[in-house]
Queue: 4 jobs
Job 1
Amino acid sequence: MKEIQLTQGKVALVDDQDYEYLNRWKWCAHKNRKTFYADRSVVENGKRTTVAMHQVLARLMEFKHTADHINRNGLDNRRDNLRDATSKQNQENCSVREDNTSGHIGVCWHKLGSKWEARIQNHGNRIYLGLFEKLEDAVRARNKAEKKYFTH
C-alpha cells in the first residue's frame, strides 16, 4: 500500500501496483457531503470535467457499473476496498445519518419494544434483523448482515 498526496492535507491509499499510474497526475481532496474523495480536473473537447480516482480504478478493474468503497472511506482506493456496484447498491452502503442516535448504520432505538432494532436494506428491500437488549448485539447483527449482502 502507498499514499498519494492530495490537497487539504489528505492522502489517498492505493495498491503498490496502481501507484505509478495514478501518481502521474495531481489529485485533489474533494468533500461530498461528509466523505472526502480523490479527484482531478480533465479537459475533454474543450469542456472541463472531474474524474474520481476510484472510477479510474473501476475502469482498470473492468467494472460493469460503478466503484463502491466497501469501508465507506472515499480516500481508501485499494482494490480490495472497491467493489463493482450498481447505483442502488452504492446508496445502500452509505454512512451514518445525522439524526442517528445509536451511532451505527442500520441500528436504532425501538421505542415500543424498548430495545435496539437492527435492519439492513438490500436491493431496495428492508430486511429486519431483530430487536436486541444490548446495542452491541444489534451492531453485531448488522455487521454480520453487511458481510452477507455487501461483500463481493
Job 2
Amino acid sequence: MSTRILVVDDEPRILESLVRLLEKESFDVVPARDGAAAEVLLAREAPFDLALLDVALPGDDGLTLLRRWTSSHPDLTVIMMSGHGTIEIAVEALRLGAYDFLEKPLSSDKVLVTVRNAARQARLARENEALRETAGLGKTIIGRSAAIRALTDAIALAAPTSATVLVTGESGTGKELVARALHDLSPRRDEAFVALNCAALPEELVESELFGHEKGAFTGAVAARRGKFEEAHRGTLFLDEIGDMSARTQAKLLRVLQDGLVTRVGGAAATKVDVRVVAATNRGLPAAIAAGTFREDLYYRLAVVPLAVPALRERSEDLAMLADHFLGTIGKSMGRKPRRLERGALALLAGHAWPGNVRELRNLLERLVILTPGETITEADVARQLPGVAAAPAVAPARVAESAAVPDGGDDDDDPAEESAPAGSLKAQLDAAERVALEAALRQAGSVARAAELLGLERSHLYKKLRKHRLPY
C-alpha cells in the first residue's frame, strides 16, 4: 500500500514542487494551502501516514496545528518545514512530537531521505499495531498514551522469545493481561497458559501446586498430581505475586529455571519441562533483596526482560477510552444497551486518584451500570458512587464543614445555614423563584456542570445554591 502524504504550504510554487517530487517516488500525495483545508482532509479522507507541514500558515500556524494533531491524529507522522527556521522553533517542533524539521529552501535529496525514513517508521508502527490486534493485544490492553504504547511495543518485541519476564506494577494495573499478551504473541500461543497466585495459597501448598506431588507425600495426598510446571509444558506459566514466595520455594524455583527439571513433592525422579515463565509482583523486589526476603539470583533469573505497567493516574489520557470499553463490555454481558458518560461524569472520574487502578475503574463502572436506570451516567450518579466524592447531603452541613468543602464565594445570601425568611416576604418570594429556576435548569441540563453553564454561574456557586435549597445533585 502506497504511503499517503498530506503536504501543507501556502506558497503555491513550493507546494507544487513538493507534490511533483513525492509523486515521482510513487507516494500518494494530497496538497493543502492552509491549516483549515488540511483539517478538512484529515477528517474526511482516508487516513494519512505522513504530513509535511509548514510553520508559517494563514490562520492557525504549523506549531498550533501540530499541538492539535498530536492528540486528534496520534498515528500521523509530521515533518515540519520553515523558511524562517530558528533553533528555538525546531526544538519546540520536536518537543511537540514532530518527526523532523526541514529548513527552506528545501533540498530535494534531504526531503526524500527524511520522507523515506519517516514512511519506514510509519509502516513499522502500522505493522506493530496489526500484530497486536491479530493477537488480541489491542483488545485487552486499552489506551493510546505514550506509557501504554511503550509497554505494548516492548511486549511485541519480547513475546516471540522464550526469555523470562518480570512484570511489575501496582495492584489492579493489569499485570496478568500483560502476561496473557506475551503468551498470545508467542510461538507458544496454541499451548497452555497456566496461572498461579503465589499469595493466595498457604506456604505448604505452594510447592505442591508448582511442582506437583506423589501419592502419600503428605496428609491428604491420596493420589499423584501434576504441578503447574508440568501443566504448562510447552506453554507459559504465569506466577503472580512472586514476592510472597517463601525462601524454600524460591530455591526450588531457581533450580527449575536453571536446568528445566521438576521434581514432585515426595518424589525422586525429575521430569524435563519446557516452560516460559512470566512472573509479576506489586512489591519492590530490590528492597526485598536488601531485606533478605528475596533471592538476588532468582530476581536476575526472572527479570531478563523487566516490564513495568503504569498506574492509571500515570496515563489519565486513557481513562475515557477505558471507560468506553468497559461500559460496552459490561452492558453486553448484562444484556443492556451500553451506557454513556456525560462530560461532567467523565470529569469527576478524571479527577479521582484511582488507588485501585484499572480494576477499581471497572468495578465502579459495573456498579454504575447496575444502579443507573437511564442510558446516560450523570455527574450526580458518579458522585454518589465514587469514594471521596460526597453526594447531596440530606441535611445542610455545619458552617465549618461547608467552608472546608467549598471555597467561600463571599455570597452570604447563599449560606445554607441561614434561617428561612418569613413567609410572604420579598426574600421568601425570591428564594422560591430561585428554587424553581434551579430545578428547571437541572432538568433541562441533566448535570450540574451543564446547569451552571445555562445559569451563568460558577459550578462551586451553583453547588452552594443547591445545598441552600436542599436540592439533590
Job 3
Amino acid sequence: MKTECQSSRIEFQELDKRQVIGEFNGGDITSDAGGILLREVNKQLNLTDRFAQCFEDFRKSEKIEHTVHQLVAQRIFGIALGYEDLNDHDDLRHDQLLALLCEKDDPTGQDRVCERDKGKALAGKSTLNRLELTPPDADEKTPYKKIVHHPEQIDDLFIDVFMDCHPEEPDQIILDLDATDDPLHGAQEGRFFHGYYKSYCYLPLYIFCGDHLLCARLRPSNIDGSKGSVDELDKIVNKIRRQWKQTRIIIRGDSGFCREEIMAWCEENGVDFILGLAKNARLLAEIKEDLVDAHIMYCTTGRASRIFHEFEYRTLDSWSQSRRVIAKAEHLYKGANPRFIVTSISQEEIDTREMYEEWYCARGDMENRIKEQQLQLFADRTSTNKMASNQLRLYFSSMAYILLNALRLFGLNGTQMVKAQCETIRVKLLKIGAKIRVTVRKVWLFFASAYPYRKVFFQIFKNLRRMNIIPT
C-alpha cells in the first residue's frame, strides 16, 4: 500500500489485514524522560545555577518571563539530549519534561502572560538566539540583546566543578593539553585557512584531567597550536593549588606543546611535564644504531620491534637547558618509526619504557574526550558571525559535557555502562518515552513499560542519591 501523509494522520504499510495508522496527537508524551537523571546530577552540583551566575542580566525585571538560569539550562539540557540547533527549541518549548529540567514552576506553560504563548513553558529560538548574540559590551541601553556572559567566571567554574568532584585532595593529577580543528563553512570572525587541516577552521585549545574538562578556549587558526597554553595553565594550576596544596601536578601534550615557554614555566612553578618532541637530524643521529638493531629484530622475528633509549639533549638555541629525552627506535612493517619525548621526571622515578608506553601514550584517551564533545555534543556548531558568541556556544557544549560526565562518574559507577560515551548514555538512558501528568502537587512520569534498561536505570538513580557533593 502506498504511504499517504495527511496533516495529522499517517497510514503506514498494513500488518496482515490490519491498518497501521499514526497521528501526532498522543498528548503530553516526551521522548527524553531519562533526562530526569541529568536533573538529579544538576541538583547535586548546582551546575546550571552556578553557570547562570556567570551572566549579567540587563533586562527589565518586570518584563522577564524566562530567567537567565532557565535560558542557559534549556540550552545545556537541549544539547545533552541531542538537540544542537536553536530551531529545535520552537518545538521543544512545548516539552513539559524539558520545562521540568529547567525548573519552570508551571511545566505546562499555562502561566505565560501572552495568550499566544500559553502551553509553551520554555523560550523559543529567537529568545535563545538573543542570549547567544549579546555583545560583550551590552548594557541596559542596548536594544534586545542584554544578557552578557563573563568568560573569566565561566573558566573558574570549570575548575570549581572539577575540584567538587574530588572531595579528597589527590596525591597527583595529570593535565592533558591538545589542540584540534573546528571546521568553518562561513565568513566567521577569526576564520583562517590552516595548512595542516587543509580547511578554514578555528583551533580550540582543550585541557582535560582524566575525563574532567578544565578548559575549552576557542582560538583563530593562524597561530601556533600551543599559543595561550601558559596563561591557561597558570590560571588552572594557581586555582587548584589554593585548595590542594600538596597535590603534584604533571602536564602532558604532544610535540605541538614542546615549547621553551611552557617547559620553563613548568620548571619555575614546580610542575612536571611529559611532552612529545618532534624528530630532527640530531635526535635521529642519537638512535642511529638502535634503529639498525630494531630493523634486524624485525627481519628476524617478522614482528614489530622497538628499542628504548634515553639521553640528555638541548637544542642549539631555543632551549634554556638540557633535558631528559626518551627515544623509541621502532621498526614496523611500513618501515622505521622513531619517536621522542622530553620530560622533567627523572629515570630513578620512572624508567624509560614505562615513561613512554604507560605515561605518555595514555594521553591518547584525551582525544576520545575531545571527539565526544565535538561530535556528540556539537562543540563544532560555531556558525555565528562573532567569535565571542561562538565561544559561548562552546561553553554551552562544555557544560553539557560536564553534566553528562558527572552522570557517568557518579551514576554509572558499578553498572555495565560505566565507560559509556555520551552518545551511548543519551541513546540508552536519556531517550525514554514517557507520559507526563502535572497536578497541583505532583509531576507524574509514566515511563515506557518496554524500556529495556530498567534495572540499570534504578541502579543509577540509587547511585545519584548517594552523591555527596558540596559545591565550592
Job 4
Amino acid sequence: MTQKPVNSFKRKKTGGSSYAALAIIVVIALVITGYWVTKPSVKPVAENMQADNKIPPPTENIVNIPAPSPKLPESVPKIPLPPAEKIYPETTVTTPAEDAGSNSSDKRSGKLAIIIDDMGSSLQEARTLVSIGVPLTFSIIPGLRHYKEVASFSNNNGIETMIHIPMQSKGWPERRLEANGLLLSMDDAEIQKRVADFIIDLPKAIGVNNHMGSEFTEHAGKMRTVLGVLKDRDLFFVDSVTSPKTSGISVARELGLKSARRSIFLDNEQNETYIRGQLKQAIGDAKKHGSIIAICHPHPATIATLSKMLPTIKQQGITLISASAVVR
C-alpha cells in the first residue's frame, strides 16, 4: 500500500479553506451592494417637515418675551369732540298714533284755520291740497302764472280763497317783489287802484292778507289806505305779522274792519320734522285760545306733511275751519 505524503494532504486542505473564505466575502459584498442599490431615497424627517411647513412648534422651554410698549409723549393733545347736535323740542317726531303730536290725555278742543299762502303758480299744488279733503283757505297772489285757474278750481271745490297782496319788505329792492306789489313811495290813489284791481281779478275772494310787507305794514297811514278799500268791498283782513311792529290789526280795529292775526308759521324750515313740530304747537295754541290761524306755503314737504296728518287731526280734538270763521 502506497502511503500519501503528509505535505500533499495539508496543501489540499489549505487550498479549500481559501476558496471557501473567498466565496463568503463575495456573497457579503453582493448583499451589501444590492442593499445600497435597492435602498429607497428617504429625506430626513426634519427636512421633510420643513418642506411641507409642518414643523410642529416646540412645546417645552418656551419663554414669552413681551413686545416693548411704544413710548408715549408726556403730553398728548386732546382731540375735541364734534359739537352735539342741537335739538329743538318743537320739532320732536311724533308717532303715527299721536298724529299731530297732541297729548292724547289732553281732552280740550280747539279750532284751527290753515291758510296756504303764495297760491297761483301751480294748479297741481291746488289739486293735491284739495284732495286732502279738509277745510283749507288758499291765499292767491294776483298775476302768478295760473292764479285764475287756481281760483276757479278752488271755488268750484268748496275752498275759501283770499287775495295775497304783495307789499314792500325791509329787504326791498334787493329782495324781489312782484311788479304789482305795493310800495311806500306810491301815493294813496295808486295804492287804492292796485287793491281795487286785485279784487276785480279775484272776484270770489272774501278776504286779504299781506305777502311779505315787513316794511309796508309798519306804516299806519299806508295800511289805512289799503284797509279802507277792503272795508268798502266788505272783505276781511288777516295780518300775516311779518313785522313785530305791524300796524295792520290796530288800523283794522280802528276802521271797524273784520280782522285777525296769524298765530304761527308752519314751514319756515322745509322738512317734515319741523313742520310736524309746528303743527303740534298750533294744536296746543288752538286748544289754549279756542281758535287760531296758522300759515304755510305749497312747498312739497309742507303738502306731504299736511296730507299725512290733517285727515286724522280731528282725533286730537281739533276742528279745521276756514279763515273767515276766525275773524271778528
